[in-house]
Structures are given as C-alpha cells and as structure tokens.
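Good morning C.,

I know you're traveling, so I'll keep this short. The sequence:
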Amino acid sequence: MTDQPTPERVTAERAEPERDLPDVLGEYVPRSAVALTDAQRWPTQTVAGERALRAVREHPHAPEWVHECGDRLDAGDLAALADLAADYASRGDRGPRARAGFEPAAPPAQPDQPEWVGALVRRVHASVPRYRRIARLHGLDPAALGPLADVAPIGRAELAGGAAGGLADLVPVDVELDRLIEGSSSGSTGSALVIALHPRSVAGDLMLLRHLLRGVGVEWRPEPGRLALASVVAQDAAFTYASTMSAFGHAPMARVNLDPGGWRRPGDREAFLAATDPQVITTSPWPLLELADLDADLHPLAVVSGAAALTPAARARVRDRWGVPVLDLYGLRETGPLAVSTDGGPHVLVPRRIHVEILDPAGTPVADGVRGEIVVTVDDNPYLPLLRYRTGDVAALVHTPAGPALAGLEGREPVRLRRGDGAWSDCINATQLLQAHGLLGWRLHQLAGGDLTLAALGGDPAAARLSLERLLDQPVTVTPVATSAGLGAGKPRRYTSDLPGGA
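The tokens, ready to paste straight into the viewer:
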C-alpha cells in the first residue's frame, strides 16, 4: 500500500463511452461525486488487496466505473466478523435444505418470541425517538415493556418520511453516528428509501452467505486472479465499481452492469467477465437470465438470486448453464436477508437476529400454513432496529425439516384476480399455472373490465393463456417477449390490477 493513497484514480488513456443520461441521473456520471480516499474506504487494506483492486479497476476490458465504494471496516470490525464466521462454522454444514410440505407432527412455526425480542422492545422504547414519544404519550415505563404483540406494526411509510416520521425518527439517540453509511432501497413499488447502515452489519451478510453456501456443499475461499464476487445488474444507469472485501481476505469484487452502454467497446463485457471469472454471482432474475445467455466462459461456484421471485424455469436454466447451486435469497434492504430457498421449496429463515410473524390485514397473527403479510423484527443493525416491520410481502409460515420457512412467497404482490363469475382468485393460483408452463418471467395485468394481458418470457405462452382462461373464465391476450426488458424496467411487478379490490 502506498504511503499517500490517492483518491478516485481515473485512467486517462482510455476514452469514456458516450452515455446519453438525463440530467436527473447525473449521479451515474463516472466519478461525479468524490468523497473518500482509498485509505478511508478500506482502513485495513493490505498490499495484496490493493494490488488485486488495481488489477480489476484497470483491467483493459473493464467497464467505465461510475462509483467508488469500500467496506469501511476497521480492525475491531474484522475481529467481530471473525467471531461471527466462527459461530457460523460451528454450526457445521447445516445449511437450509427446505423441502415442500409439512411434517406430520410439526411444532408451531410461529413460536413465542425469543428473549432477545423483549430486550429489544425495551431498548427501542428507551432510545428510538418514535417509540420514546409513544412511551411518554401513554405513560409507559420502557423497562417494564416486553410483549411484541403490544407494539403496533410499522411499514415503508414510516421510513419514507413526511407525516409518518422518517428515517431519523427510527435511529436510536444513543448510538454514535460516525460509522453510519447510507444504503438505498429501489422503491420499485413505492418511493425509494435511504437506509442507515453500519459497516459491520453489511459485512455480516457476507459471513451469512458463506454459511449458506457451505450448507449446499460449496466451500468458498478467495482464489487469486478471480473476482470473489460479482454483483450483476442490467439497467440503463447503475452504480458500478470495483472493491475489495476486507473480511474475506481482501479479495476483489465488482458491481457490473450488463447494459451495453456501460462498456467501452463491443466485446468488453464478455471479455471482462471471462477474464475475472467471478466465483460467486449475486444478482436478480432478469440480469441472471441475460448473463446465462452471454457468450462468456464462466465457472461460478454458486449463483445467488434476490430482489424478485426466481421461477422454477429460471432456476433450471441456470443449473443447465453452469451446473452449480442456485440460492434464492429473500430479504429487504432495510431488514437484511430473511430467508433462502436452495431447491425451489419454501424459503427457510436464515440464522440472524430476526423474528418473523405472519399477520392478516387487521394485524392479527394467523395460524401456521395460512397466508398473510410477512412482518419482521430485526436486531442486527445498530442504526435501524426494527419492531414489527411490515414487508408488504405475502407468504405462509410453515415448519420444514430445516426449520421455520416461508411458503408461497409472493414479493409485494397481494394481488387478487377476478374470475368471470365475480369471485376472487389469489395470484398464487396463477403463479402455479404459469410456472407449470415453463415461463421464465411474466407480467399479468387485469383491466377494469376483467380482461387480462400477459407479457410472457419463455415457456409456452399459448398453453399458459389457455390455462389462465380456464382458471379465471376471462379473456387473456398474450404478448411473448424475447428478453426480460419486455417485462418492464427495474424490478417489474408480476401482477397488477385496475379493478377495485384487486390490489
């Protein structure tokens, strides 16, 4: 490492590609906002780590990096993360391997709250502005509190701000803010959120990922000359950067955008990915399908998909392409990872300080196996402890051989479809049909008159149309699309409705 690390190195020899970005997307212009030096981004950087970082940043086929990002981990963080990794390792290879169905004598999936939840309720009411006001208003003694059921759920509106409060209303008053970093949630079904994060909490997800991979037989260790991890997106404008993971031997990683406009020359995208050959790929279903179709010689150890539902056909496509485990990881930016499916079965709750409830629209817990809204309590991020946070996602909590799991998970889509006779059909019924016909992805919309339009990627759209018409007794118009872009920008919702009561 040099004695005087330089901020934001730009390689002048290579011409920047022309990007026709709107003014409102100025933050995606390469290095438009420089704030930290490399020494500040990676306080514990090693000579080998810096060398690996430079090799990725300055690779002849690299994209035009538009951002700089480091993990900000100090020596204390690395020690704590090493302890966390050791704790996960002590669990052996007992990673989640959920299978569909119930055990004959399954214990309740919604157990009594663990001890740490009661302690969190008391701490939050003593230190978080929103809950301190509630305690004062009702004359409550925070030290005497405990039952989670007495706490009213909150949701995205409380984080988004305005009359509902905002992020600052949920950050404890007794935490030092000098380590705070900002994350963001895309807002694909609402306004975007800015999330307060701690570097150690973010890096903890990496330790969890290693544990989950070990559970499917993958021993993930850094390998010289390869990216340890590639985070892959496919969108018109995106933050892209090269970085190193201090808690993973300072191994290199990168966030790359498959959109051709983010690369300097034709062929650079495939050449860069093949040359850096990422060990683990994290992405979402649509970029994953694009990546699987690229003419790039990749040899991943595993693929991790998130942000949207991974269909069985998409999972099979990836397994056929690379023959490696595919993890479907469910979580939100504000909550962190919550559950994982390794085989297309229910999503098993991950071993973090999370407590999951399933509530009906009135906020009442439902019985095991009954679908409702996923509501989570999380004590993993010192800047954002969450009590009964409504995710907006729907599932049933069931018991599997691997532990409590979310079955029938539909992300942010509590949509009903109206049948021809006026009765309602849960969108999960359509999901099962469309998956059975091999669709890689879809967007199903019901018009105010009851007719439906289906944009279908892959599979057998004609057969899917017939099945939907039999299910709903409503006319269905199908539009086959060749790529995921035909389903909409960003993370398109799979179901939408113009009908009152449909969404």
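Safe travels,
E.
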